[in-house]
Amino acid sequence: MMKKEYEELRQRIEQKINDFASFQCEEDAKDFSGIEVRNHPSIIKVIWENKQAGPDGIPHLIYVAREKSPNHPYHYKAGAMNVLTRVSAVMTNAPFMLNLDCDMFANNSKIMLHAMCLMLGFDNEVQSGFVQCPQQFHGALKDDPFGNQVVVLQQYVICGIAGIQGPPYGGTGCFHRRKVIYGVSPGHGDPEKITKETFGHSRELMESATQIIKGTTKKDVGIYDLSSSLKAAKNVARSDYEFDTSWGKEMGWLYGSTAEDINTGVRIHANGWGSVRCTPDPPGFLGNAPVGGPESMTQLKRWATGLFEIIVGHNSPLIAVVTKKLRLRQCLAYMVINLWAPRSLPELCYALLPACCVLSDVAFLPKGQMVMVPISLFMIYNAHTLMEYLHCGLSPRAWWNNQRMQRVTSATAWLFGLLGVVLKLLGISETIFEITRKDRTISDEEEIDGDAGRFTFDSSPLFVPATSIVLVNLVAIGVGLFRGGEGVGLGEVACCAWVVLCFWAFVRGMFGKGRYGIPWSTIGKAGVLCSLVLGLCMLG
């Protein structure tokens, strides 16, 4: 019955859209004809206006396309969020804002009420600068084969950070106070600081900001005449509006990092605001997780790049903890996440250490009873992490998938994230915001064949280092077995086998076909690197 009613509703909506489209065709053709994706003026359309401002009416629905010009930077998602902030300010000026990624939807009909209870339920608003819902997914693959559903991270790390100064801003599923986005510190809102040098030359925007900071906004935002504010809205959506202003620097979503969400969240916490974690049942919002190797690695590379950019930027938690109001423990919590990219170097060394020792005939494990020390550490760590996954209701298979994917991620996405930031610091190249594809779904054929969670590959250089690690360790295992126990002990060979087991998806990829196989060009490049490592080991 539900499916039948939904289908009828869908048909009625599509019919209304078709009727509206034919009615608006000539009007819209003027704005959309002859434009380019990255070279067009501001386009703002009031699709639906709630003129009666009734509590049960359909809210305003406004289409916004900011101006783009090849002569001006548009700062990717952060720039889009700043444009939406300014446009909504001159059109409705609501004191609270919700931002969602395009792949997410509201899963709890009362999520707005849950968030407003947290926004307005504290004696001091400083405790709730923003309200963050944890990122959760619908239709996710069983046992998290790509290690990107972050269930344990949300349950332990983020929940723990929430007990300090609040959870970090996750970029989606977040409710904001407009004045906090404007860079206002708790108890320090000064309307006199609203100038053209900070907000830009729009009189309407400065007036709306003054209302927000003074707390004198109109209670019923529905009484705004949206049509009369279109000119002002198009003005603040211009590509050159932010020049010589504080947008992207001290207010709005901050620029300078592909992880604009964490970067902006650090600024908010550094100004003295707290944040709150909202975890209703059922979850407030659900989204899509990448379902392939290239998609997952692209997302993780962008995260690692942006997080490390924050550390070396002017908004670094290391600076904010000294010069601003970021707490020391909150700074340390940010460092756990922001240092993903540099972690790739020790992880890479550990992945190659056993193989290099076997090839050089040098032992790194202690002899005799002392060998129980590293064995005990290994067993305790794995038992502890396994208990965390079981406590979260996940299976041992999910634990293993995340353990092996962490090794894969460190040798691919994190390593290239580090290289990207280093090249940026040296002035050789700029980091770019890479869009993560989340629209691909698992086909029926993949479900039937059991390949729904199988790792996929493409010709990206991301996969070269991990393939090299596999080749080096396979050679080391062969050398160790050929020696028949002479020279280094079996412990080093067992460590090589453990590394290969962690990268088993790449072993399968060497013999796979199509997108399940590693391209020969990648294997060739990895073979060259493997030869270099073998040569260095032999010389050693």
Automatic annotation (TrEMBL):
Tell me if Cell wall biogenesis/degradation is a UniProt keyword of this record.
Answer: yes
Bilayer-crossing regions: 371-390, 411-429, 462-482, 489-506, 518-539
From which residue to which does any coiled coil extend? Answer: none
GO biological process terms held by the UniProt record:
cell wall organization; cellulose biosynthetic process; plant-type cell wall organization or biogenesis
The main place the protein resides is: membrane
Keyword terms of this UniProt record: Cell wall biogenesis/degradation, Glycosyltransferase, Membrane, Transferase, Transmembrane, Transmembrane helix
Q: Which organism encodes this protein?
A: Acorus calamus
Output the Gene Ontology terms for molecular function.
Answer: cellulose synthase (UDP-forming) activity
Compartmental location: Endomembrane system
GO CC aspect terms: endomembrane system; membrane
Q: Entry's Pfam families?
A: Cellulose_synt (PF03552)
What is this entry's stated membrane topology? Multi-pass membrane protein
Per its UniProt record, what Gene3D superfamilies does this chain match? Spore Coat Polysaccharide Biosynthesis Protein SpsA, Chain A
InterPro entries under this entry?
Cellulose_synth, Nucleotide-diphossugar_trans
Q: Which gene encodes it?
A: CSLH1
Which positions bind Mn(2+)? Answer: K77, D101
Q: Please give the name of this protein.
A: Cellulose synthase-like protein H1
